[in-house]
């Protein structure tokens, strides 16, 4: 029999063109699926219900990435913020979600001409890095948060540089950068931008190209001034301790001389007082002792020459003129005539009155010696 003969069937329940039957319980499921695809009003409604379910499923499910934050609006009004992860919400138009990148930093750089407090024009470079700190304010706090940040950065830099002089802007920008960052963050918060500064730098500040040569000359002069000041300070640090040491040494020597002089004067005064007491007790003995001590001191400083007749004579050397040349070393001095040292004394026919009376003449101290 041919395959297309009506009524033909095989033992397995499947004919060449007849309906195929699924084994077991799968047959009922297959019948239901075939019923969904059949025509008629009931089939269309089922298709609409399936599409609606699928649309609600995909519309209510929200997956927020790690670097994102989801802002949920309910009928156009802020409802909540979705953190990273899977979430469900009411279907549109009841709720809608706007995703905002909140952890990725963005950068803004620009060079602006600024007038300093002392009237100099300088080009200052601005480098700002920021991210979204508050997604709600970022979306609805201002019209354009990024444009607001750019304008606020330029305004704050002009304000702070205008309060500083040129030397501060060129060589000491660390404190200026700190103040600019604080003021800019305060401005962003006041404008409700929702942005958070992560870093702010003023990496470069240079004069305009029209005055660059004059500015370089001024910088070289400033560098030379700093070099001279450093050299002067180094010289002062070296010479001042030496001067203080010399001053202390001179002062110590003066103090020692003062102490020694005072002690010597006090000793002489005490000795004189003792001599006065001794003189008052025994004038003659004290006078003679003083004379002997004086003569002893004088004779100890002079040379003694023994004459040919074994007499000891006091030799008082004559002072040589300043221009006279000294005898060379090793030259023997010629012998001195004893008559020059001790000339003969003739007897005087008229001796002094003191000699006739058998008394010695008075000495310089007024003492009189009897034979």
List the SSEs and their pairings.
Blueprint: H1 26-36, H2 41-60, E1 61-64, E2 68-74, E3 77-82, E4 85-88, E5 95-101, E6 106-115, E7 121-132, H3 135-140, H4 145-162, H5 166-171, H6 173-190, E8 195-201, E9 205-206, H7 212-281, H8 283-300, E10 303-306, E11 312-315, H9 338-341, H10 353-356
Antiparallel strand pairs: 1-4, 2-3, 2-5, 6-7, 7-8, 7-9, 10-11
CATH class descriptor of the domain at 106-206? Alpha Beta
Q: In this structure, how is the largest beta sheet organized? A: 4 strands, antiparallel
At the fourth CATH level, what is the homologous superfamily of the domain at 106-206?
Band 7 domain
Q: What's the total number of strands?
A: 11
Structural class: alpha+beta
CATH fold title of the domain at 106-206: Tetrahydropterin Synthase, Chain A
Looking at the chains present, what oligomeric state does this protein adopt? single chain
Number of helices: 10
Helix content: 40-55%
Mean pLDDT: 76
Note the run of SSEs as H and E. HHEEEEEEEHHHHEEHHEEHH
- From the 3D coordinates, which CATH architecture of the domain at 106-206 would you assign? 2-Layer Sandwich
Name the poorly predicted regions: 1-19, 327-336, 338-371
Shape: rod-shaped
Radius of gyration: 63 Å
Describe what this molecule looks like in 3D:
By secondary structure, the protein is of the alpha+beta class. It contains ten helices and eleven strands. It has helices spanning 26-36, 41-60, 135-140, 145-162, 166-171, 173-190, 212-281, 283-300, 338-341, 353-356, and strands spanning 61-64, 68-74, 77-82, 85-88, 95-101, 106-115, 121-132, 195-201, 205-206, 303-306, 312-315. Strands 6, 7, 8 and 9 form a four-stranded antiparallel beta sheet that branches. Strands 3-2-5 form a three-stranded antiparallel beta sheet. Helix 4 crosses helix 6 (173-190) and helix 7 (212-281) crosses helix 8.
């Amino acid at each position: 029999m041919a395959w297309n003969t009506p009524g033909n069937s095989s033992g397995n329940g499947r004919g060449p063109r007849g309906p195929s039957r699924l084994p077991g319980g799968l047959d009922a499921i297959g019948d239901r699926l075939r019923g969904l695809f059949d025509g008629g009003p009931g089939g269309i409604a089922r298709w609409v219900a399936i599409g609606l379910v699928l649309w609600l499923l995909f519309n209510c499910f929200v997956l927020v990435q790690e670097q994102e934050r989801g802002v949920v609006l309910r009928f156009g009004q802020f409802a909540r913020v979705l953190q990273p992860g899977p979430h469900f919400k009411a279907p549109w138009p009841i709720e809608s979600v706007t995703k905002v990148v909140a952890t990725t930093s963005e950068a803004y750089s620009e060079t602006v001409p600024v007038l300093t407090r002392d009237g100099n024009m300088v080009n200052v470079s601005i480098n700002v890095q920021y991210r979204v700190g508050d997604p709600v304010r970022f979306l609805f706090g201002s019209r354009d948060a990024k444009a607001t940040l750019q304008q606020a950065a330029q305004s704050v830099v002009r304000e702070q540089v205008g309060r500083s002089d040129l030397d501060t802007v060129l060589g000491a920008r660390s404190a200026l950068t700190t103040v600019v960052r604080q003021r800019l963050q305060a401005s962003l918060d006041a404008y409700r931008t929702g942005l958070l500064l992560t870093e702010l730098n003023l990496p470069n500040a240079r004069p305009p190209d029209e005055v660059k040569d004059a500015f370089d000359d001024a910088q070289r002069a400033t560098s030379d001034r700093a070099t001279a000041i450093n050299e002067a300070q180094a010289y002062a640090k070296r010479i001042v301790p030496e001067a203080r040491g010399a001053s202390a040494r001179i002062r110590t020597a003066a103090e020692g001389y003062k102490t020694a002089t005072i002690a010597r004067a006090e000793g002489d005064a005490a000795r004189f007082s003792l001599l006065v007491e001794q003189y008052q007790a025994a004038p003659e003995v004290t006078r003679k002792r003083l004379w002997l001590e004086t003569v002893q001191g004088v004779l100890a400083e002079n040379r003694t020459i023994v004459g040919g007749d074994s007499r000891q004579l006091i030799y008082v050397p004559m002072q040589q003129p300043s221009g006279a040349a000294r005898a060379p070393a090793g030259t023997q001095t010629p012998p001195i005539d004893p008559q020059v040292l001790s000339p003969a004394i003739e007897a005087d026919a008229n001796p002094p009155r003191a000699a006739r009376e058998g008394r010695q003449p008075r000495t310089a101290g007024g003492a009189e010696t009897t034979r």
